[in-house]
Amino acid sequence: MVFRFRLALTPLRLLVIASILVVFEPTYHVWSDHGLSRPSRRLDPPAHDTCLDPVFEAATTPRQNAALFMLARNSEVDEAIHAVRSLETSFNQHFDYPWVFLNDVEWSSEFKTRVRAASTASNITFATIPSSMWGWPPSLTEAS
Fold it and tell me: What three-state secondary structure class fits 103?
């Protein structure tokens, strides 16, 4: 009888230990800082880590012929504005490259107005491309 009682407690003990680990592990990660400190200001990691100082770059190198392209939909206006503001703040305000926005349907007036307000670029083009060119090519969507 004692032997059966010990066997019955083994799964219960495992369940209790597993429950403690499930609670402890996320709590540990939330409360520990792992030796990392937060930056004093919000940084845009791609521009902060990989680009030279745009003001220095604009003063010392000739401006290249280029444009900034974005594929977007009318429903993605908030995300587009976030991306435009980020790039304008960290880069394009010093170079004034034109923006080209591409969509497979006509642009809404709200999208155009809000994006123009977010950009410092003097030249913004809103264009449409054929729906057949929007999305992945058939060769990439076929099952392997």
Answer: strand
Q: Would you tell me how many other CB atoms lie within 10 Å of the CB of residue 40?
A: 6
Question: 132: which 2 tokens?
Answer: 């057949």
**How far apart, in whole angstroms, are the C-alpha atoms of residue 93 and residue 81?**
15
* Paired tokens of 124: 């913004």
Q: What is the pLDDT of residues 107-123, one digit of tens each?
A: 999 999 999 998 877 78
The DSSP string of 60-106 is HSPPPP--EEEE--GGGHHHHHHHHHHHIIIIIHHH-PPEEEEESSP
